Amino acid sequence: MEFLIKGKIYYREEFLEGTLLIKKDKIWRIFLTKEIPRGYPLIDYQDNYIFPGFIDSHIHLLELGLLNIFPDLSEITSLNDLFDIIQEAEKNLSAFPFLLFLNFDLEKIKEKRFPKRKELDKIVNKKIVIISQKDGHTTILNTYGLIKIFNQGFFPGMEVDNYHQPTGVLRGLANEFIHKYYKKYLPVDVKMLAFQEAEKVIIKNGITTFCALVGNEEDNSYELLLENLHRFKTEIIIFPQVKDIKKVKNLGFKRIGGCLLIDGSLSSYTAALSVPYEDNPQTKGILYFSDEDLYHFFKKATEADLQIAVHAIGDEAVKQVIRAYEKFLKNNNLRHRIEHCEVLDSDLIKRIKKLNLIVSCQPAFEYFWGGKGKLYEKRLGKRINFTNPYRSLLNESIILIGGSDAPITPPNPLLGIYSAVNHPNEKERINLKEAIALFTKHGAYGNFLEENKGLIEKGYDADLVILENLPIKDFKIKIKAVFKKGTKIWES
Ligand SMILES: [Zn+2]
Ligand SMILES: [Zn+2]
């Protein structure tokens, strides 16, 4: 199969009118003249932009897919809305072993509180109800769920009322336990369905390659995904989210970790900060690892030639990661990454640079949580000036790769690029080309794909996305088509 694609090509950081000759799965030639080579079928995209296919370096594939199966609470504004949705789900989702509700957003709920366990019991009392907060770091259970899952015992992170009875709200370790629980008990066919539903959403957003962060110590979904990779249209790079180095090696993976938690999240007050939370001065968050354990994990995984990714949001968590690497890491040939890095300071940035660690960022966090009156300011007060400091990181020539953390934010690189260019903190804005690189060139480097992907160059994979406009003033831009290795996999 040979054909031509014409349009405004993003070539060596410029927009140039031209034509690409695609042969099989590769970009065979690039013509930057007005003339169109003869003898090949032509797809003329006229004034539209031709970009390399986007790379999202951070997607929770199962959770994104589950959002397309179980109810999404992200748009509801009251507890009554929630109760209606639960009632509906009890009728429609009776085949599932539990009822799962994702993306509960306390900020949007007018009552500004979580539902009470007893309120949930009035609607469902013979089936487990699990409600997950948008950031994944708080869950709420009904009484039946508490009894079934925790067998009436106490678990660290369980919130209790004045009578020492659990309220149903779970944070920290108890929250983690629930997330592991429901993933473990999901039937295999539901998991496969979730993976495939998620991929449909991913492709529509112009993504041709992505990192899928999958599984945990009790859920081996990464094996299921690995065995079925041939069923997907995109290039999927799997991060098994476990600490079992031997198992990961035996299965043939080259990577380990993902959102392997060093700390929690800002919205749940569990991200580890060096000073107390502005709006909750009793706490500085949680570190899940001891220094000792983290050092051993990093060292052993490095000796096993695995690329490591871990989740560190607060400055204290990032500091712990750096401290562990500083003890032994001589170079970063394995391209170890830190996910999120939302709260930094200039000392941490210098140490990240010295270790040559990759920062895997999610610029859409600034779109949702940055700026006046939003989450970052509430939790951090004045330190808001140092959230997601992209300009400062790039000034130190640190490699920044971009992702969405979907389903926490939509898997939409255009939103990511727009958010980085329009960072609420003007000092930390980066320009369009730098922002595009997060989701193309640097994304490829972060995943050892820089020889085939992330650029429009002769001999590179014909992974392309056609855009009607540039995501500078708005991110809601029509995507005309998506090509993966020369095959059109999506068209508007
Ligand atoms: Zn994470
Ligand atoms: Zn994540």
TrEMBL record:
CDD domains: YtcJ_like
Gene Ontology MF term list: hydrolase activity, acting on carbon-nitrogen (but not peptide) bonds
Residues of the signal peptide: none
Alphabetized InterPro entries for the sequence: Amidohydro_3, Metal-dep_hydrolase_composite, Metal_Hydrolase, YtcJ-like
Domain Amidohydrolase per the UniProt entry, residue ranges: 43-472
Alphabetic keyword roster: Hydrolase
Protein name per UniProt: Amidohydrolase
Classification lineage: Bacteria, Bacteria division WOR-3
